[in-house]
Design goal:
- The protein has about 120 residues and is an alpha+beta fold.
- It has one helix at about 5-25, and strands at about 35-40, 40-45, 50-55, 60-65, 70-75, 80-90, 95-100, 105.
- It has a 4-stranded antiparallel β-sheet, with no helix packed on it. It has a 4-stranded antiparallel β-sheet with strand order 5-6-7-8, with no helix packed on it.
- It is globular.
- The termini are far apart.
- The relative contact order is 0.13.
Length: about 120
C-alpha cells in the first residue's frame, strides 16, 4: 500500500476524531431554542431553523424537520397529534403539518400571500 495513502487515511481519522465533539449539538446549552409550543405531553420548538420536539420536561429531543428551508411558529393541534408550522421551502411562507411521531411534512397552503400558522384555524 502506498505510504502517502496510509498517512492520508491516518490524518483523516485523526481530524474526524478531534472535530466530531466540536460539531455535536450541546443539549445542555439551549440558549438558541426559540418559539416554544407546549401540549399536554410535548414541547415543540425551533432550533437551528429546524422543528424539534421533546417531552414536556425537556427530555428526549428529536428533530422533526431537516431541510434547507426555514421553519417557524410551531403550534400543536387541539388533540396534540400534529404540529402545524410555517416553512419557507419554495420562497413562499406556507403552512405545513407533521405528526408528533415524525414523518414527511404535509403542505396545507400554496399561496403567494404569506400566511402564518396563527392565521389558519387548525382542525384535528
Amino acid at each position: 500500500m502506498n505510504p502517502y495513502f496510509s498517512f492520508g487515511i491516518f490524518l483523516t481519522v485523526c481530524c474526524l476524531t478531534i472535530t466530531s465533539p466540536l460539531l455535536a449539538i450541546d443539549t445542555l446549552d439551549t440558549r438558541l431554542l426559540s418559539q416554544p409550543a407546549v401540549s399536554q405531553q410535548h414541547v415543540a420548538f425551533i432550533y437551528a431553523e429546524d422543528l424539534w420536539i421533546a417531552e414536556k420536561d425537556g427530555s428526549h429531543p428529536r428533530r422533526l424537520t431537516m431541510d434547507y428551508g426555514v421553519e417557524s411558529n410551531p403550534v400543536f393541534s387541539p388533540d396534540g397529534t400534529l404540529i402545524a408550522f410555517n416553512a419557507q421551502y419554495d420562497g413562499n411562507t406556507d403552512v405545513f403539518v407533521v405528526p408528533v411521531s415524525g414523518g414527511v411534512p404535509k403542505r396545507l397552503t400554496l399561496n403567494c400571500i404569506p400566511l402564518t400558522v396563527r392565521k389558519v384555524k387548525l382542525i384535528s
